[in-house]
Design brief:
heterodimer; A: 328 residues; mainly alpha; MetI-like fold; 2 domains; two-stranded antiparallel sheet; 2 strands; 77% helix; B: 420 residues; alpha+beta; 4-stranded antiparallel β-sheet; disordered N terminus
């Protein structure tokens, strides 16, 4: 178990490092260096900086040094919590990102949790009553869920909400709470807004999870030990829940690690459609304005948080499912 | 061939052994009297169900001599949804080839005055007679805003003609012609015919959707080929050689699967210089998208290599001194080609969604390129969409084609292993 834990943590660290390299590549990609972009951005808004200041900036970010020194410098700044300045806003990146990073994770976690809460009972029901009308219905919905990209679903939901309920279902807060400081009332307001984006984000993984759970459990229910259990007069409920469901859960559970990254990915685009105050809109703006430092910071933070989230869920899984502990 | 089945333990019903499949919508396996190849292994079951025709030896014979591909085709044909998916996909690719023919208006012809005209369907009958026509649109200047407002005038009819003349184009890029599937009699279709309405700039949506279908589907196809090459090479190395290379490639795949990739691809796409031509952007986007899908393909290829590597016939080929390339391409690849085709089909929807999403965000293809995502950009504002809901119509082909590819891929995957 300890070796599993250590390997898992090492892999997470390694992944974080890989993300940092990828984020750094994104920063480096546009022609010219960051200070050039910074200067052109400033002159576009009417202000400017002197050549001295430009040199100072270049020195600060080690832009005159070889690339790996630049990377090391960037990593050190990141590790110190200094994410640099956001050009468009003329404010520190940390300030611009603010709550957005956490809200991204809140929305994504809500989607993942919802996926589980919904997919598990439906998958079990569909396997226990295959080819029943409800099973067909869930299958049909599952196909649609898989086929409609989440951002299109968001558009459709917004449209129908607007036309038929005359309500804007987008956003994560009511207008009066958007700029309000955090309070219980604001939290409650967010909880009320959370289900719509969570469903939109989670629907594809939900459909996938239902299919996997159904197929696994169907396989399991055909095995001789279940027949034996039934033959010995076990109640149907116990015959299903005692072992088959628990066995079928395992492959299902192992997909959770890939659900979170997928959902976080999707949240970027869905946030733009639904107007959610996550890092999605910020990332897009920074990319369009070629503010690569902000974009790189967002990519890095988002990636690292996702890795941590996945690690935590893996450890939870290990705690729930003893087989993982024994396996290695 | 038949022997394999007989030696194996009684085959489990297929429904259960297949992971995520369109289970409940597909036909039951053992109920087809016209499909002897499936009922043949069923002979191992306790006995044929009453009423089921007893198999003739002739039918068994046909199964026994059928090639792998024949068996796959027979199994695939029984999968009704997959057949439906296949037909839909073929129709969509017909649009790709014949986009200009099916479009009746030049997709670039814009007229701000004709912006946001509602879709107008073709009326097939006139006074009980077959006369396809549309009602004329009459433009009037609004006395208050001085803007031209178009209204439908049901008293004026404009007959619709088939194989009409319109803007010039080249069939297959060579044969010059100006024929289009439909047009209007004695008029300019750009000014009269609006099957799916017009967009903000007054361009005809129907014609633009046709062109967009070409762009989006070819991007998907090219991207899937690129990721297939990547997946086969990396998955092949991983599965055939194993060891260190395998470890490295597997870790790489795990890393790519455990980080949110869309922000990364957005970053890559945004780094494209604004000055690039449509073609440059097109191919860059294709490559970025293909980076998304190769991991799953590599996983499939690796799994196949791993399972085949230990087979006796591979050892035998090795012992008689066959070259490695011969073992791979003559003995192993034909066996899992069908699996790769199925996995490729299932990977395509993700590519199409990625292109649509990137273009929708303004980071992918940029106007004047026309793709589904570019068209959907106009539907970003919910107020605009509420007033002109037809701007959302390009979402329909996206959803349809993804559904079709999913059904097709599922059917192919089930058929890929005809001996199971």
């Amino acid at each position: 178990m300890l070796s599993y834990l250590i390997r898992r943590v090492l892999f997470a660290l390694f992944t974080c490092w890989a993300i940092s390299v990828l984020a750094f590549i994104i920063i480096q990609l546009p022609p010219g260096d960051f200070v050039d972009a910074y200067i052109s951005n400033l002159s576009a808004s009417g202000s400017g900086i002197s050549a001295d200041q430009a040199e100072q900036l270049r020195a600060e970010y080690a832009l005159d040094q070889p690339i790996w020194v630049q990377y090391a410098r960037w990593m050190r700044l990141m590790a110190q919590g200094d994410l640099g300045m956001a050009m468009e806003w003329q404010r520190p990146v940390t300030e611009v990102i603010g709550d957005r990073l956490w809200l991204t994770m809140v929305v994504s976690f809500a989607a993942v949790v919802l996926t589980w809460i919904v997919a598990l009972p439906i998958g079990i029901y569909s396997a226990v009553r295959p080819y029943s009308p409800l099973d067909y219905l869930f299958t049909l919905l599952g196909f649609l869920g898989l086929a409609i990209p989440s951002f299109l679903l968001g558009l459709l939901v917004l449209y129908f909400g607007f036309v038929y309920f005359n309500a804007n279902i987008g956003g994560l807060f009511s207008p009066e709470y958007i700029d309000a400081p955090w309070s219980w009332a604001k939290l409650w307001d967010m909880m009320k807004h959370l289900p719509v984006p969570a469903v939109i984000l989670g629907i594809a993984s939900m459909a996938q999870a239902i299919r996997i759970m159904r197929a696994n459990l169907l396989d399991e229910l055909r095995k001789p030990y279940v027949v034996t259990a039934r033959a010995k007069g076990l109640s149907e409920w116990r015959a299903i829940w005692k072992y088959p469901v628990r066995v079928a859960l395992n492959p299902f559970a192992s997909t959770i690690g890939y659900t979170l990254p997928y959902v976080v990915s999707g949240s970027i685009i869905v946030s733009l459609v639904l107007g959610l105050p996550t890092v999605g809109p910020l990332l897009l703006r920074s990319l369009i304005a070629q503010d690569m430092f902000l974009a790189g910071a967002i990519v890095l933070l988002l990636g690292v948080l996702t890795v941590i989230g996945t690690l935590v869920s893996d450890l939870l899984l290990m705690w729930i499912d003893p087989r993982i502990r024994v396996e290695d | 061939m038949q022997r394999q089945d007989l030696d194996a333990p009684a085959p489990a019903p297929r429904i259960g052994t297949v992971s995520p499949t369109p289970h409940s919508l597909e036909p039951e396996e053992t109920s087809g009297p016209t499909a002897p190849f499936v009922t043949a292994p069923g002979a191992l079951a306790p006995g044929p169900a009453p009423g089921e025709p007893i198999l003739t030896t002739e039918a068994e014979e046909r199964v026994a001599v059928a090639t792998q591909w024949q068996l796959m085709w027979r199994r695939f044909r029984k999968h009704r949804l997959a057949m439906l998916g296949a037909i839909t996909v073929i129709l969509f690719y017909a649009i790709v080839v014949l986009a200009e023919f099916l479009a009746y208006a030049n997709p670039e012809a814009s007229d701000a005055n004709r912006g946001l005209i509602a879709p107008q369907g073709i009326q097939w009958l006139h006074d009980g007679q077959f006369l396809p026509h549309i009602y004329a649109l009459v433009g009037e200047r609004d006395p208050q805003t001085f803007k031209r407002v178009y209204t439908v005038d049901p008293t004026q009819i404009v007959p619709v003609t088939f194989f009409a003349t319109g803007f010039d184009w080249k069939l297959f890029g060579i044969i010059p012609t100006n024929r289009h599937l439909i047009g209007v009699e004695g008029g300019n279709p750009e000014e009269t015919l609006f099957l799916l309405g017009t967009d903000l700039e007054g361009r005809d949506m129907w014609s633009r959707v046709m062109y967009a279908t070409r762009t989006s589907l070819t991007i998907g196809l090219i991207a899937v080929v690129v990721s297939l090459v990547l997946g086969v090479i990396l998955g092949g190395i991983s599965g055939f050689y194993g060891g260190f290379a395998d470890t490295v490639i597997q870790r790489l795949i795990e890393i790519l699967r455990s980080i949110p990739t869309i922000p990364l691809w957005m970053g890559l796409a945004a780094a494209m210089p604004k000055t690039w031509s449509i073609t440059q952007v097109y191919f860059t986007i294709t490559i970025i998208i293909s980076l998304i899908g190769w991991t799953e393909l590599a996983r499939v290829v690796r799994g196949r290599f791993l399972s085949l590597r230990e087979e006796d016939f591979v050892t035998a080929a090795d012992l008689v001194g066959a070259r490695q390339s011969r073992i791979i391409f003559v003995h192993m690849v034909p066996l899992f080609l069908s699996h790769i085709i199925a996995a490729t089909t299932l990977a395509l929807p993700a590519m199409i969604i990625s292109e649509t999403a990137l273009s929708f965000l303004g980071l992918g293809l940029r106007p004047p390129a026309i793709s589904w995502g570019v068209l959907l950009q106009q539907a970003q504002n919910v107020q605009t969409v509420a007033l002109s809901p037809w701007l959302l119509l390009p979402a329909l082909p996206v959803i349809l084609v993804i559904l079709a590819f999913n059904f097709l891929g599922d059917g192919l995957r089930d058929a890929a292993d005809p001996y199971s």
